[in-house]
């Protein structure tokens, strides 16, 4: 059985809904899933999981949330070399540049992005939630 972490930050509940769907998809494939708020996850925990799904909405000028999520991700990204990961999040403006920048950060440290990232424009509809379930399954 694989061990999957779902690590996320949500301000309005959109990314939290996506995280729940990622958890559902991973559990559906038999994974043991642990959910973490961004403030709870550290670089020391990366090695405990076979795959990690990170979720964060776009903030400000299309950047990761700056007070909690980005500091956590900056701490853990050095431990992501060869780690199976997937990214998801919501946005309300722009064109998804924050996700492309985030994917580049992950590739630059040698992380293994196991599937396409999932983005929701505002609240995730059922189609996006299904993509999140598939993302969770891909990590399992």
Q: What's the quick description here?
A:
The protein is α/β, with parallel strands linked by helices and 140 residues long. Helices cover 35% and strands 25% of the residues.
What this model shows, in words?
This protein has 140 residues and is of the alpha/beta class. The chain has one domain: Rossmann fold. The chain is 35% helix and 25% strand. Strands 1, 2, 3, 6, 7 and 8 form a six-stranded parallel sheet that branches.
Mind sketching the topology for me?
Layout: E1 3-8, H1 14-28, E2 32-37, E3 51-55, E4 58-59, E5 63-64, H2 69-76, E6 84-91, H3 97-108, E7 112-113, E8 118-121, H4 126-139
Parallel strand pairs: 1-2, 1-3, 3-6, 6-7, 6-8
Antiparallel strand pairs: 4-5
Helix pairs in contact: 1-4
> Number of helical segments?
4
Please name the fourth-level CATH homologous superfamily: Flavodoxin domain
Distance between the first and last residues' Cα: 8 Å
Shape descriptor reads: globular
**Helix content range of the residues, please?**
25-40%
| Number of structural domains | 1
What's the gyration radius in Å? 13 Å
CATH architecture descriptor: 3-Layer(aba) Sandwich
The top level CATH class name: Alpha Beta
| String of helices and strands | EHEEEEHEHEEH
The largest pleated sheet is described as: 6 strands, parallel
Decide which structural class fits the backbone.
Answer: alpha/beta
Mean pLDDT: 96
| Strand content range | 25-35%
How many β strands by DSSP?
A: 8
Instruction: Quote the CATH topology.
Output: Rossmann fold
Q: Low-confidence segments, ≥5 residues, pLDDT <50?
A: none
């Amino acid at each position: 059985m694989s061990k999957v972490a779902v690590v996320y930050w949500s301000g309005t509940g959109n990314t939290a809904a996506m995280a729940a769907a990622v958890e559902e998809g991973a559990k559906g494939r038999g994974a043991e899933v642990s959910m973490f708020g961004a403030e709870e996850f550290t670089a020391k925990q990366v090695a405990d999981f076979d795959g990690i799904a990170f979720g964060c909405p776009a903030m400000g000028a299309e950047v990761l949330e700056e007070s909690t999520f980005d500091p956590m991700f900056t701490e853990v990204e050095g431990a992501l070399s060869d780690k199976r990961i997937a990214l998801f999040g919501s946005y309300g403006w722009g064109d998804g540049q924050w996700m492309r920048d985030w994917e580049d950060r992950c590739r630059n440290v040698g992380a293994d992005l196991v599937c396409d990232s999932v983005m929701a424009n505002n609240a995730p509809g059922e189609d996006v939630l299904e993509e999140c379930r598939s993302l969770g399954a891909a990590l399992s």
